[in-house]
Design a protein that fits this description.
It is a single chain. The chain has three helices and five strands; from the N terminus they run βαββαβαβ. A hairpin with a 5-residue loop joins strand 2 and strand 3. The chain starts with a strand and ends with a strand. It is globular. It has one domain: Alpha-Beta Plaits, CATH 3.30.70.100. The longest helix is centred in the middle third of the chain and has 13 residues. A five-stranded mixed beta sheet has the order 4-1-3-2-5. It is α+β, with helices and mostly antiparallel strands.
Length: 97
Amino acid sequence: MNVIKHVTVRGRVQGVGFRAFVEHHATQRNLDGWVRNRRDGTVEAVFAGSADSVEGMIRACGIGPLSGRVDTLDQRDGTEAELAERGGEKFSCLPTA
């Protein structure tokens, strides 16, 4: 069963390679979606794929890269409209919003 999840990660998550970390792990898990920095200092992402792969990705985001620090991770069900923001790629790093 495929699911879509939207996550927001707070902590020391910008300037530490967090987006590259997310893109790498999402690609390894064959997920669709995107990741981007937010002007408020958070990182936002949408993941779509098998429930197990998406849950594994969310667990990885809760840890993040070694140079980062995750204080909180909020998640909710995502939408097809959010997923479509990625453009034509399977998984994208989007510009800061």
